[in-house]
Cysteine desulfurase
Amino acid sequence: MNAQSKHLPTVFDVQRIRADFPLLSRTVHDKPLIYFDNANTSQKPVSVIEAVNTHYREHNANVSRAVHLLGEEATAAYEGARDKLARFINATSRNELVLTSGTTQSMNLVAYSYALPRLKAGDAILTTVMEHHANIVPWQLVAQRSGATVKPAPINERGELIVEKYMEMLTPDVKLACVTHVSNVLGTVNPVREIARECRKRGIPLLVDGSQAVPHRPVDVQALGCDFYAFTGHKMLSPTGTGALWARKEHLEAMPPFFGGGEMIREVRFDGTTFAEPPHKFEAGTPNIAGFVGLGAAIDYYESIGFEAIHAWEQQLLAYATERLREIPGLRLFGEAKEKEPVISFLIEGAQATDMATLLDLQGVAVRSGHHCAHPLMQFYGVPATLRASLAFYNTREEIDAFVTALLKVRKLLM
């Protein structure tokens, strides 16, 4: 059994869970806060906040550099987070996990340490129209330096990847394929296992952006069959500046370091330097130790609830929110895939996204407006921006009702 499946509650007690998140009790502009910006960053439970606090109060020291007790305690907690992450995503070994500042650093690590040394003129990197900029721009940068190109696979109007077209585009010139597990704008869940299977047949490594998947569903990298899986901690209850890159052992062993400095070496001499074994050869400098202590606590929190319960509740919220939003005149939904996570992007006819988000904030509702770091997707739909309401397991149906009431009020003001 995956560790994420343990300790399932018989009833999902959302009010008890909400009590674990101090910020959810805030008022904003004299209104109770409704936090629907979880795809941007999640709120943090008390256990995570206290883990970071305790680290700084009782265990603060650098890792892997001292034999005194504080150093040993800090190192044990930091490396313990790596162990928890390895179990969390079912990695074969803890040494397959490079601890990073988040998905963006993880993507750039693959771009410069894996892709760039292998690319040449005429090669290509395959990605999709629905990707976050972090799964586009690094590939463009290394393509410019190597003479390669970046090819985007298309989507349909429902916001679903046209999988057969993606497969057709896996031509011999493609040296790396990329896809998001869950779209940060549309909530679309892509068929990663199917894509990975076809990539393996062609000998093409597959990188998956898991930023929006890990907060909502169990992730098993062995079952998925991809080569690289990148994700971010702050979207999964953890402090900012945390994340990881999972990669197959053979890739990490073959990749040169991207960053150079302390703690990623065996020996430094002016006639040559030898590097540490993976993953440490990719972890130069002092890491965000307290942040990863918090990430370890976040994993404990997820496991105390269980992803089956989390996923079931979030799917109820998604269905209810979608149903309620359809009641609003002139509202256009973006992303109606058959399989989705609780991310809803929309516009209301005659209203600008930023104006609506500003007025919703005055009603206590926090949503995201803008292009969501997905310019090509906005271009596909022919809009400059959308509003995005992204839910988490600590949200409620009552919050959705209040959100719809606020939307109707804002719509009336702007019409």
